[in-house]
């Protein structure tokens, strides 16, 4: 589990936040790695202060009229990475590492998991969406799927394609062709994602490595 950031350095002006008539402000919670919107809940000045002090999310329950430490009962704590407020200072955006990868009380990863009454994976960044499709093909093979043909071919087929696509990226860069570079890098990314799925490596593990290299 990644440690929460030092929130004292973020200097969120609690008194400058524009709370509504009930003394509340909406807080949108987002996965710090892939950008998935996990939930929306309400904060008051006290819960925001406790969030900043503890590095874990605290909210205000309107139904119970009490402070609510997210995950204290379920174990699905949220380790806060950043806290931002919008241009009108009346909404918060909080990025977190979600313990257990479950934010919703239903057991879904995100509270925003429904489209027209159908349960579906919440939106995330493009690489995560493509990786989710690859993993779905792995679990539910389709006869004409190129992804399934790669997976069935194992390392020999997958790694051969990665080598080919890597060489094509090099050639596109040598030609200084932006359109070709974008296309070849996309192909390289895709085949690398297939390799991750084949070896049961979660894309979030790669994101964590990239996060560590930002410093």
Could you walk me through the main structural features you see in this protein, from its secondary elements to its overall organization?
This protein is an alpha+beta fold and 215 residues long. It has two domains: 14-113, Ubiquitin-like (UB roll) (Roll); 126-212, Helix Hairpins. It has five helices and eight strands, in the order ββαββββββαααα. The chain has helices spanning 45-54, 126-139, 146-174, 178-198, 203-212, and strands spanning 25-31, 37-43, 58-61, 66-69, 78-85, 92-98, 114-115, 118-119. Strand 1 and strand 2 form a beta hairpin. The chain starts with 24 loop residues before the first strand and ends with a helix.
Essential attributes:
elongated; 2 domains; Helix Hairpins; two-stranded antiparallel ribbon; Ubiquitin-like (UB roll); 8 strands; alpha+beta; 215 residues; single chain
Q: The CATH topology of the largest domain is what?
A: Ubiquitin-like (UB roll)
Major sheet details: 4 strands, mixed
CATH architecture classification name of the largest domain:
Roll
- In total, the number of domains comes to 2
The name of the CATH superfamily of the largest domain reads: Phosphoribosyl-AMP cyclohydrolase
Record the strand order, biggest sheet: 2-1-6-5
The whole-number mean of residue pLDDT values reads: 92
What oligomeric state do the depicted chains represent?
Answer: single chain
Secondary-structure-based class equals alpha+beta
**What is the overall number of helices?**
5
How far the N terminus sits from the C terminus, by CA atoms, comes to 18 Å
Sequence of secondary-structure elements = EEHEEEEEEHHHH
- In the CATH scheme, the class of the largest domain would be Alpha Beta
Enzyme class: hydrolase
Region (Phosphoribosyl-ATP pyrophosphohydrolase): 127-215
Protein name: Histidine biosynthesis bifunctional protein HisIE
Subcellular location: Cytoplasm
């Amino acid at each position: 589990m990644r440690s929460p950031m030092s929130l004292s350095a973020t200097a969120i002006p609690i008194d400058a936040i524009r709370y509504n008539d009930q003394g509340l402000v909406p807080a949108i919670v987002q996965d710090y790695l892939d950008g998935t919107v996990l939930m929306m809940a309400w904060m008051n000045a006290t819960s925001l202060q406790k969030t900043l002090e503890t590095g874990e999310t605290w909210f205000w329950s309107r139904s119970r009229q009490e402070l609510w430490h997210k995950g204290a009962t379920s174990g699905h704590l949220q380790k806060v990475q950043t806290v931002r407020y919008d241009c009108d200072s009346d909404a918060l955006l909080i990025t977190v590492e979600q313990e257990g990868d479950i934010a919703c009380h239903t057991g879904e990863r995100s509270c925003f998991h429904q489209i027209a009454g159908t349960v579906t994976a919440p939106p995330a960044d493009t690489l995560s969406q493509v990786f989710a499709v690859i993993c779905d093909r792995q679990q539910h093979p389709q006869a004409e799927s190129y992804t399934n043909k790669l997976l069935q071919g194992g390392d020999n087929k997958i790694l051969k394609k990665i080598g080919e696509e890597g060489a094509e990226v090099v050639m596109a860069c040598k030609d200084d062709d932006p359109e070709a570079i974008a296309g070849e890098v996309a192909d390289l990314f895709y085949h690398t994602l297939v390799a991750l799925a084949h070896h049961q490596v979660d894309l979030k593990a790669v994101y964590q490595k990239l996060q560590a290299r930002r410093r």
